[in-house]
Automatic annotation (TrEMBL):
The lineage of its organism: Eukaryota, Fungi, Dikarya, Ascomycota, Pezizomycotina. Homodimer. SMART domains: Cyt-b5 (SM01117). This is Nitrate reductase [NADPH]. Its cofactor is Mo-molybdopterin; FAD; heme. Keywords: FAD, Flavoprotein, Metal-binding, Molybdenum, Nitrate assimilation, Oxidoreductase. It catalyses: nitrite + NADP(+) + H2O = nitrate + NADPH + H(+). Pfam families: Cyt-b5, FAD_binding_6, Mo-co_dimer, NAD_binding_1, Oxidored_molyb. It comes from Phialophora macrospora.
Length: 1104
């Protein structure tokens, strides 16, 4: 039986930041996104260009298209296997756009990706530069190994004991339940956001309710109404024959096409996802549920973009045209067209739920092995596909051939979680029973399956827990025993509470015990309204007759939820609730695969004095939910009574709190004492070392990865080799100073994982770095509030989303420089709100991030458009809804594969799309000398620009804007705006936009002066006569060609005796320097010279 490999982290010795580095660290607050050389909130290093780019079947036609594409792919793979060095152009030419060939076969928002990783092309092949680097790293590893041997650091010693032994040492062998229903304080929210209050009428005419009230109690009136309605409804039930379309058929095609920025640095960078889903496991993999109110408000049929998502790893990038399904070990091989066209299709509504739903409540009692779900991991959509018994029959397995022996049908997906293929099994006789509707689904709400839900095909087992409905299905086979894969044995099980670890003998026995497997879904019910944090004014409530409480309920096995009840007094008495069923809820005469919604109208006075709101439901066996949650190691199948507690806040309002809330957990359940003690232990034994922001941000690669969690610094480089969640999540968060890293870790790791993490601790962040994290988080939260106002589709660029833009033109400007025009006219399919066109949404000096989908992450580069000129007209953007980028192509040669993004752009066919995001950069030129820098307006009348290579483009945008103004500052019409530029390149041929810059200089009437600096030239005299400089940017060039800092800041202690004539001009304030160029030029030459001269970062010196 598969077991996890030993997990032994080790850390490399690091002395911590020096006392001088800690003392010299700036006093970080919020902002500082343009501190040169530091990572900004978009993950880009301000003022620096990207370092890597500076390194020297419908018919025969369909079948032919696929065959040619696969041959091209095979040829490329053979070259790689043979050892040929493949550059970025080779990889780009080996890709095929299957989506454009058959867009109807793919779900909305499908992205075309590159079947390679940037690191593989650039760093993992045997380029001469890589061979030299590996030799150097191998020598370093040998030295580290020798040091570790001397220190006696080896796996298996006492401090690396396995979980079973560790828990015994810590006396964690008994079941504990603490304070599951304790009451705690809460905060008020906006009143009357959920639920419904019904008002009575004053005057002589009595309402029907008031007449009934003369005879019956409120409970009796409610019961009478509900029983009458429900009697008529259940009599009218009709059967679903599987031929109906989903009522959301048309709506699905209009789902969002944006890609969430949080996915950009993960293998899921190509998948559009809804912002209405709450992520429960941080960045990756995707595990998310809808907000309760959004889920309920969507109705009895759940839209695709609101369906909960459960992924164990990255979503495999499968294609409809090439994916095949192996049935019974090659007896039958089905293409997706074979499956869709060769078998009768059924379309039925099924409630699918995760067996970890409501685990968040269990984790507050005691941390389980699973991450915290709220109550939203349940959805109910239409699923269309072929019945599995028909497919098995075509493979020779049916009721007539089956000999009656106990056998299992096995399913395996194409995804690759950390512990091997995801596979499971169910009894064969269950599948062959036609009433059970086991399906191979290829559509969801009459649209191709979204990638997160199993595109192109998944198993759909109605009435079972979601973990058995394998997604991205690749294999089906029959065995005479249950599946023995890791995920069938070690996941989706409910163990006795005394099992508290996964590696003891008791655990091994019970994980392999057939009785612990979760198969049929269990009975459950949830209150949706009143919502978490909802408040009601007591006086307003008492003016109303009733308040409507609402929610949903479901059961497994095809059993009807026959009764739902609500208690106002902790279960002493119960109110009968009315159920709402979907249309045609019955299948095969007796199966109910769907959920129900329910409501009950409560007398307002009774609600005002209620102790709590508690819901429970009953199934056809008259079984009901247990009163209390039952903790188990995996946190599965929690279906205790769902309790909403009421209290009166300081304003006299009635406050409702759910037990656990997905976002921040402001529910009434609080961590148990056991959890609190475990958390306290986690901070013990931290080494007395501190690390600055700069030091931490430099450890963000697969060879050197640090994480900051709860203010502690961990060297997790060694964990990458065995991390159960894979490497993507760690690398996406390495080197980051953000509270989001902590919340992502805490959401999915138990106390044993914390124990292993402690083996990697090397120190704490410095006080200034901790302040930076705190203040930056506050600033981000404030920006989130502002960005949430208005319709985002008025602007193309969105900070939290990536949107597709189409390459429509390519123009060669020189041997290696091209102008690319991208159109966004069709990005939102013409659905932009009441606008003739969507605005670009970019300020002068700001950047657009462009992305190309690679296997492991989005390949991202920042560019500043050279067209349109932003901010000069009232429209701000060109009417043709396009923008232009000028990009220098770093072509490959025999020593290196070239620049990644520039070569992909060079090979990208016209009509294909790439991703766009932004705007990035907190510097915006507003005109007439005014700059908005991180939200503060500053006026400068003398502007220095130090630019290098492709870093000229943000400066070019500023120069274009300044050249077309009247030349005066906004606050002083007598003060002219003047700009001095140093533009550095390797040679004359490397100068980007040279003619355009020359034109700007001419039009400015002397206000703009541009000096080009090149490393070498064949005719130095002629270059000098043209006003150019030769060499590398240095202090002398800077002082000679640029404006000095304000008079009070100039540092006159210098060895440079030749002072600029402009030195006298520093007597007036309003001088600023902006930089953008290669790291070596900016950090080693320009920035030190500016500091020595008197410029101060974040005050009058910034990086674009």
């Amino acid at each position: 039986m598969p077991l996890p490999a030993p997990r032994c982290p080790y850390v490399r010795t690091h002395p911590g930041s020096s006392e001088q580095e800690i003392a010299d660290e700036p006093d970080w607050g919020a902002g500082h996104n343009h501190r040169i050389g530091y990572r900004n909130r978009h993950g880009r290093f301000a003022g620096l260009t990207h370092e890597g780019d500076h390194d020297p079947y419908k018919d025969q036609d369909d079948r032919k298209f696929v065959e040619e594409a696969m041959q091209k792919h095979r040829d490329l793979r053979k070259r790689a296997e043979k050892g040929d060095l493949l550059n970025f152009q080779d990889v780009a030419r080996g890709q095929t756009d299957f989506y454009s060939h058959r867009p109807d076969a793919y779900p909305p928002g499908w992205r075309v990706g590159v079947d390679a990783r940037e690191d593989w092309v650039k760093h993992e092949q045997d380029w001469p530069a890589n061979i030299r680097l590996r030799e150097k790293q191998e020598n370093q590893r040998r030295e580290e190994l020798e040091v570790r041997k001397k220190l006696g650091d080896k796996c298996g010693e006492e401090d690396h004991n396995e979980e079973h032994d560790w828990r015994r040492d810590n006396s964690e062998t008994s079941e504990k339940h603490h304070g599951a229903y304790s009451k705690s304080g809460g905060e008020s929210a906006q009143p009357q956001q959920n639920g419904t209050m019904t008002h009575g009428h004053n005057g002589e005419h009595k309402t029907e309710y008031q007449k009934l009230r003369e005879t019956y109690s409120p409970e009796e009136i409610t019961l009478l109404r509900l029983l009458q309605y429900e009697r008529d409804q259940t009599k009218a039930f009709q059967q679903n024959d599987g031929r109906q379309d989903s009522p959301l058929k048309e709506e699905v095609r209009n789902t969002p096409i944006e890609i969430d920025a949080i996915d950009a640095m993960t293998p899921d960078n190509w998948i559009p996802r809804s912002s209405n889903l709450v992520r429960n496991t941080g960045q990756h993999p995707m595990n998310a549920e809808p907000r309760l109110d959004a889920l309920f408000s969507a109705g009895l049929v759940t839209p695709n973009n609101l369906h909960y998502v459960r992924n164990h790893a990255s979503v495999p990038r499968l294609l409809w045209d090439t994916h095949t399904l192996d049935v019974c070990d090659g007896t039958l091989r089905l293409s997706m067209d074979d499956l869709k066209n060769g078998f009768e299709a059924y379309n039925i509504q099924v409630a699918l739920g995760c067996d970890g739903n409501r685990r968040g409540e269990l984790n507050l009692i005691k941390k389980s092995k699973g991450f915290s779900w709220g109550p939203g991991a349940i959805s109910c959509a239409y699923w269309k596909g072929a019945m599995l018994y028909d497919v098995l029959s075509a493979a020779g397995v049916d009721g007539t051939s089956w000999n009656g022996d106990r056998q299992w049908v096995n399913f395996e997906g194409a995804d690759e979680p950390s512990e091997g293929k995801y596979a499971t099994s169910i009894p064969l006789d269950y599948v062959l029973d036609r009433a059970n509707d086991v399906m191979l689904a290829y559509e969801m709400n009459n649209s191709p399956l979204p990638p997160d839900h199993g595109f192109p095909v998944r198993v759909l087992i109605p009435g079972f827990v979601g973990g058995r409905s394998v997604k991205w299905l690749s294999r089906i086979w029959i065995t005479d025993h249950e599946n023995e894969s890791y995920y069938h044995i070690w996941d989706n099980r409910v163990l006795p509470s005394f099992i508290t670890e996964k590696d003891g003998e008791f655990a091994r026995t019970m994980f392999n015990h057939p009785s612990t497997a979760c198969m049929e879904q269990n009975l459950n019910s949830v209150i949706v309204r009143p919502g978490q944090g909802e408040t009601l004014d007591m006086a307003d409530l008492l003016k109303c007759d009733t308040y409507r409480v609402r929610g949903f309920a479901y059961d497994g096995g095809g059993h009807e939820v026959q009764r739902v009840e609500l208690s106002l007094d902790n279960g002493a008495t119960w109110l009968y609730c009315i159920r709402h069923f979907p249309d045609l809820p019955v299948r095969n005469g007796r199966k109910f695969w769907t959920w129900v919604h329910w409501h009950v109208d409560i007398d307002s006075a009774h609600l005002a004095r209620a102790e709590s709101l508690t819901v429970r439901c009953f199934n056809v066996f008259k079984n009901t939910q247990p009163q209390h949650p039952v903790w188990n190691l995996l946190g599965m199948m929690n279906n205790g009574w769902y309790v909403v507690k009421l209290s009166v806040d300081s304003q006299g309002q009635l406050l409702f709190r759910h037990p656990y809330h997905q976002e921040g957990n402001e529910g009434w359940m609080t961590p148990s004492m056991e959890n609190q003690l475990a958390a306290a232990k986690q901070d013990a034994g931290i080494p007395d070392k501190q690390f600055t922001r700069q030091e931490i941000e430099s450890h963000a690669s697969k060879d050197d990865a640090w994480l900051v969690i709860n203010g502690n610094v961990y060297d997790v480089t060694s964990v990458l080799a065995w991390h159960p969640g894979g490497t993507a999540t760690i690398l996406a968060n390495a080197g980051k100073l953000s509270p989001e890293v902590t919340s992502a870790f805490e959401s999915i790791h138990d106390d044993y994982a914390h124990k292993k993490l402690q083996e990697c601790v090397i120190g704490r962040v410095s006080e200034k770095a901790e302040t930076f994290m705190r203040e930056q988080a506050k600033a981000e939260a404030e920006k989130e509030k502002v960005s949430g106002i208005g319709d985002h589709r008025e602007l193309l660029l969105q900070r939290k989303k990536w949107v597709p833009v189409k390459l429509v033109a390519r123009k060669q400007l020189s041997s290696d420089t091209f102008a690319y025009t991208f159109s966004y006219k069709d990005t939102y399919n013409g659905n932009s709100p009441s606008k003739s066109h969507v605005k670009l949404g970019l300020g002068t000096c700001q950047h657009i991030q462009m992305g190309i989908h690679m296997l492991d992450k989005l390949l991202i580069r920042s560019y500043t458009p050279t067209r349109p000129i932003i901010g000069l007209t009232s429209t701000d953007d060109d009417a043709d809804d396009s923008f232009e980028l000028t990009v220098k192509t770093y072509f490959p040669d025999e020593n290196q594969p070239g620049g990644a993004f520039s070569n992909f752009l060079h090979e990208l066919p016209l009509g294909q799309t790439v991703e766009a995001n932004g705007p990035t950069g907190e510097i915006k030129y507003m005109g007439n000398g005014r700059f908005d820098i991180e939200g503060k307006t500053r006026v400068f009348h003398k502007i220095n620009l130090i630019l290098g290579g492709s870093g000229v483009t943000p400066g070019y945008a500023l120069l274009q804007h300044v050249a077309q103004e009247d030349g005066h500052t906004s606050d002083d019409n007598d003060t002219q705006i003047q700009v001095r530029v140093l533009d550095a390149n390797k040679s004359e041929q490397d100068i980007l936009l040279r003619e355009q810059l020359r034109d700007i200089e001419k039009r400015s009437a002397g206000r703009i002066q541009i000096t080009h600096v090149i490393s070498h030239t064949a005719d130095q005299d002629q270059w000098g006569r043209e006003g150019g400089l030769t060499g590398h940017i240095n202090a002398h060039m800077i002082r000679d060609k640029l404006f000095p800092p304000a008079l009070g800041r100039q540092n006159i202690n210098t060895d440079d005796t030749k002072m600029s004539a402009r030195g006298k001009e520093g007597e007036s304030a309003g001088v600023v320097t902006f930089l953008c160029g290669p790291p070596s030029m900016i950090q080693k030459a320009a920035l030190p010279a500016l500091r020595d001269w008197g410029f101060v970062e974040d005050e009058d010196c910034f990086g674009f």
